[in-house]
Amino acid sequence: MNTEILSHLADTLEARREAAAGSSYVASLFKQGEDAILKKVAEESAEVLLAAKDGDRLHLVREMADLWFHSMVLLAHHGLRPEDVLMELKRREGISGLDEKLARKPQP
Ligand SMILES: N=c1c2ncn([C@@H]3O[C@H](COP(=O)(O)OP(=O)(O)OP(=O)(O)O)[C@@H](O)[C@H]3O)c2ncn1[C@@H]1O[C@H](COP(=O)(O)O)[C@@H](O)[C@H]1O
């Protein structure tokens, strides 16, 4: 399995932007607008926290999938794709989080 599944889902999400609200869950989210999408991202984030705490790994995977899915709807709402996030992660590859944090702080 590779990142093709993310690209394929992104294509489906883009197609739903033109679809009638009653015809699909994603189309109805797009029609409700950004606040509705953000509300779903917040709800799914909270569900990820609860799943992590209950120690059930399958539950965590399912809630994380819900969060990734709704985050991708948010990206699509802004005309962005998962490849944009993957490129940012690629750019950060090999840069230690500690070094990056130090570089941000003004030196005394
Ligand atoms: N990956 C998903 C996916 N993951 C989760 N969901 C839906 O996200 C919704 C919200 O999940 P919740 O757990 O919050 O359920 P809920 O409480 O019933 O939701 P609300 O009524 O509160 O919105 C549910 O209806 C899930 O079915 C998804 N819906 C669609 N997809 C993908 O998006 C494609 C397009 O979907 P449609 O637009 O529905 O055709 C599908 O073919 C799938 O590939």
Automatic annotation (TrEMBL):
Pfam families cross-referenced by the UniProt entry: PRA-PH
Protein's name in the database: Phosphoribosyl-ATP pyrophosphatase
Gene name of this polypeptide: hisE
InterPro entries: HisE (IPR008179), PRib-ATP_PPHydrolase-like (IPR021130)
EC code: 3.6.1.31
Compartments, as annotated in UniProt: Cytoplasm
Keywords: Amino-acid biosynthesis, ATP-binding, Cytoplasm, Histidine biosynthesis, Hydrolase, Nucleotide-binding
Membership in a protein family: Belongs to the PRA-PH family.
GO molecular function: ATP binding; phosphoribosyl-ATP diphosphatase activity
Highest taxon of source: Bacteria
GO CC terms, sorted: cytoplasm
Pathway: Amino-acid biosynthesis; L-histidine biosynthesis; L-histidine from 5-phospho-alpha-D-ribose 1-diphosphate: step 2/9
Catalyzed reactions per annotation: 1-(5-phospho-beta-D-ribosyl)-ATP + H2O = 1-(5-phospho-beta-D-ribosyl)-5'-AMP + diphosphate + H(+)
Biological process according to GO: L-histidine biosynthetic process
